[in-house]
Write the structure tokens for this entry.
Amino acid sequence: MYLKDILLYLTFAKNFYIIRTIKANYHSVKRRILHMPKYIDIYQQIKKDYINNNSGDDTRFPSEYELMEKYSSSRTTIRHAMQMLRDQGLIVSRRGCGTEIIANFKSDAQKGQGARISEISNIYFNFVKSPTPVLSSSEPLVDIVPADEEEAKALEVEIGEGIYRIRWLHFADGIPYLYLTNFIRLDFAPDLPLHTSHLVALYPLLEKHWGLVFLDAEEIFTPSVSDFISSRLLEIPEGTPIMLLRRTARCQKGPLEFSRSLLRSDLMQISARLVNTGGVMF
């Protein structure tokens, strides 16, 4: 389904999923199926490749034909993706001059550096409005994407090497509070898509089918703000403060997974208990 005008752009989050009923834990629950149109994927990839990391020295934007070749997509898909960039004020097209980049943004991973603290004894994720909400999640979207620099480093693969990407929304009392993207090596879980139709928790699945046992993880917390896509997925205004979590988990074979999570801070808070080990506190 393609968006026809800007009014539909403002409400397209409702087209990201449909509702179906399944049986889980002996209760009838509604589980949402996350549907991401291809032009949304292309928009995100173009933004990462040409906008986020643009230093400002080169404002030239590729032609439609160049983008069609690079992303193996139709002209219609590329035009929809480019229109989203125009609507955000990131590019402008002028007759006789082509298309130029008019705004540059660093990626979320570059907006701030997480602080590593070794004296944490416990960390808690607490729901703000209800201490015991009814939790659910969408059906995950699983595909294979080329690893970017950060993903490649975390998973110990080459940049551009294919890796699994799992995208799903998590809900508390029916309200989306977390948009989670997991990345996993292809050689660690060769037939992963065959086992994710009713995925509830990733680590037990990896242990059950491939013997990958979680050992430890490092997680970096970075304050961020919702962009055009995340604001629609999390159902919040664009520019709302959110938390970006980046996790690198390990198992007995090496890197278990790398993940990026976008968390609504109005629905969930993160607290940590610090232990004084004689070091400098801040």
